[in-house]
Amino acid sequence: MRKNLFALPLVGLLAACGSGGSNGGNSSSQIKIVGSSTVYPFSTAVAEDFQRANSGTSVIVESTGTGAGMKLFCAGVGGRYPDIVDASRPMKASEYADCAKAGAKSIIEVPIGIDGLTLIQAKGQPALNLTTAQIYKGLAANPFGKPQTATTWKDVDPSLPATKIRVLGPPPTSGTRDSLAELILEKGCDSDAAMKDLKKADEKKHKDVCTKIREDGAYVEAGENDNLLVQKVAADPGSLGVLGYSFLEENADKVAPVSIAGVAPSEASISDLSYPGSRKLFLYVKGEHLAAKPSIKRFVEAYSKAWVKGGLLAKRGLVPLGDADNAAAATQATALKPLDASTLK
To answer: What is the pTM (predicted TM-score) of this model?
Structure first.
């Protein structure tokens, strides 16, 4: 797995590591964040600003993917373990159970904004519009429970170009992969009435048929480095990529969006959730670490000031939450109320 690591000034890091104690972990002056590659650039931006305002605190942000980040976050309590996990989808009930088993029972969920799960293609290619059903038929290992035989998009639907199916996307450890399954593949699968019936009869089989991605080379796991994925798609006309909207916006000179069900990703279509790939992004904070590290609370409050409309993160491509949700998130960023595990799936 490829990881991106953002660490603030070396002097601060050395000082923090030197005071980490015998367990070799984080000191009270160091905040460690792991998780989503989509949220990574937003957290690094906030971390840079936070470091300038709090010179005695160092912040380390590591891009591991949401799933891998959750495993690290939920592995235990104390200086060796992360304080915060970035997530491009909600925490799962099974992940919370792992956290609780390891002693992390006070988990705080903070929504930070909305992102669009975006399909991209190289700049200059003919505009492409795909439905969720067409994407599912092109990427599923066994579309509607039948063998996968499509090699081009025209095989999927005669109205589409005879371009070879080649999609670069996230690995299973990524929250973006989970979002692809939930927001796109499952919806496309359920366009068939028999699949809706299957969900009622056998939910496990339904999930396998609807979300398992083909492994014959048409879908390429491109790791957790979204900037590298952009470069690969830009250099390979005809291929598509799957990543967060902010990376599309930042690389509009290299890649272009693929519309889904006639809707192109934009700040407006993501904000009002009319774009099918719209999804909320989150921070999860380990409540057991707050007393030992007061800087965590200050960091989350700094995040809430950065996600407002026209703020630092909006300029980086994060789409602000609607007014009511934004107000609730701002309140939560100060209150830091632990989540109710019964609401998790």
So the answer is: 0.82
